[in-house]
Amino acid sequence: MIMEDAQPIQDSSSQEVFVFKKPLVDTEEYLKSTTSLKEEQPIVPSQPPEQGVPPNKLTEFLTSFQCKSPMFPNDFGTVVRISSNETIRDAFKKMLSYQIMAIPVVNSENGKPVYILSMMNIIEFLMKHYSLGDFKANLLNSIKNMFASNKTETFLNTKLSEIEANGNFVIDPVYTVTEDAFLLEAVDLMLKYSAHRVVVLNQHDDLINVITQSRLIQFISNFVDSIPTCKKSLFELKLHNRPLICVLENQTAYEAFKIMQERQLTGIAVINSSGTLLGNISISDLKLIGYQSTYWNLLSKTVTEYLQAIRENPDSRIRSHAFAMLEDSSSKYPLVLKCRPHHTLGFVIRMLVYYKVHRIYVVDDYGVPTGIITLTDVLRELVK
């Protein structure tokens, strides 16, 4: 169904991709209303305690901590990596185990970082080697063999060094900073190259740390009240109304992942025929097939059915536990974070951090998405 406020784009796979370009109502009216979201909007988390961050100055924080700081990359100080002589299967298992979307690949001989293997690479392989018709056929047994057999010549059994040598698909480059560099330099690299992470090297070019957007935002959330920009509304910052890519609820999960792969997106909105936001599907949701191999056949099912499987398995580590456990009895989908134009950037940051997600949707009075805010958007706004 083609909606009045959306323009369908016909791509090479003959599926319709909806790009929303304007809200259904005048956005200025939002600022006059203090009505909360009428649906399952979760309670705003309280401000977390400060962790020794200099108050009132974001720049001071970014120029006070060096990239070798033990507070990165996670609460456990664990730098996850994988050797180039290991396989795609090994990488996939580590991503699932540590709840990450990408992993640095290091040279098996000298331990130097070579490139970043991401979930997008895995999706690109699937889109290149399998069509929707393949998943509708009896492909499940052969997929199981990909995980179970050590002799099968498949992508999952291919050594990472061979992937690099063959150059069959795009490999994420490694953006690096030295251990003595300050966080501001890492942020500048992220924004310059639209990178979600940078790796930290010591004087011997050994991998010693990883700085991610999500971890940076997590620490910044401790002192959002002292950042003037965070007190401004999304409307004031012009973040409330931007084109975004959507997929209909009755399209297949395969089509959704294909859209993400072709447009190099990490997530897209799921809507119904009226344009109402129902959920979100992201490349990290592909981890479902690693949690249980029988879920591979869900790629031929609708987005609704695929997301239902995620909601029914909150302990699968596909999504953060706190986020996955939140349910709305009237919805078939996992909770999707949404906000309104009158909400502040500080509100958005706290929501993203508390629920450990990478995006939040801006919706209008009718629940129609009018924009999307990602971690990259937040960082870019903060360091303007």
Task: Explain what the structure shows.
By secondary structure, this protein is α/β, with parallel strands linked by helices. The chain has two domains: 199 residues, CBS-domain, CATH 3.10.580.10; 163 residues, CBS-domain, CATH 3.10.580. The protein contains 14 helices and 14 strands. The strands form four sheets. A five-stranded mixed β-sheet has the order 1-2-9-10-11, with helices on one face. A hairpin with a 6-residue loop joins strand 4 and strand 5. Helix 8 packs across helix 13.
Question: Brief description of this entry?
Answer:
Helices cover 30% and strands 17% of the residues.
Task: Trace the largest sheet across and list its strands.
Answer: 1-2-9-10-11
- Write out the CATH superfamily name of the largest domain: CBS-domain
- Total domain modules: 2
Shape: flat
Biggest sheet details: 5 strands, mixed
Total helical segments: 14
Query: Could you say what the CATH topology of the largest domain is called?
Result: CBS-domain
In whole angstroms, the N-to-C terminal distance is: 40 Å
Strand segment tally? 14
Mean pLDDT equals 76
Q: Roughly how much helix do the residues carry, as a percent range? A: 25-40%
Structural class: alpha/beta
CATH class of the largest domain: Alpha Beta
Secondary-structure arrangement, i.e. CATH architecture of the largest domain: Roll
Estimate what percentage of residues fall within beta strands: 15-25%
Q: Compute the CA-based radius of gyration.
A: 21 Å
Secondary-structure element order, as H and E? EEHEHEEHHHHEHEEHEHEEHHHEHEEH
